[in-house]
Q: What sequence folds into this?
């Protein structure tokens, strides 16, 4: 349900729902990744990073969390950290071309 709120642009409701879900299951990398994404969309970058790292701690091979972190680091001009996360995402199965395209697009709009 939390991700549905994200898709509808209701980021605060998404965060509320995902926090409630995390109270029931603190071991869900997907929930923490979605929570990070919702915080990112609200411009709450520190909270987004914290939640992406929580997702990665729970599942170090969760490629989507690495990819989301790479994109966020690119957005905030921390390119060295972004590159590390790009490599981690690709190592764990994320599509390199898709991720590099996203990173390149962000860099071109800075």
A:
């Amino acid at each position: 349900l939390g991700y549905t709120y994200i898709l509808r642009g209701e980021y605060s409701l998404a965060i509320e729902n995902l926090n409630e879900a995390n109270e029931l299951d603190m071991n869900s990398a997907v929930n923490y990744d979605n929570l990070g994404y919702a915080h990112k969309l609200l411009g709450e970058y520190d909270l987004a990073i914290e939640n992406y790292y929580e997702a990665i701690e729970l599942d170090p091979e969760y490629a989507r969390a690495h990819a989301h972190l790479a994109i966020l680091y690119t957005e905030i001009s921390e390119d060295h950290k972004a590159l590390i996360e790009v490599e981690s995402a690709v190592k764990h199965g994320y599509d390199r071309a898709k991720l590099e395209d996203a990173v390149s697009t962000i860099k071109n709009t800075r």
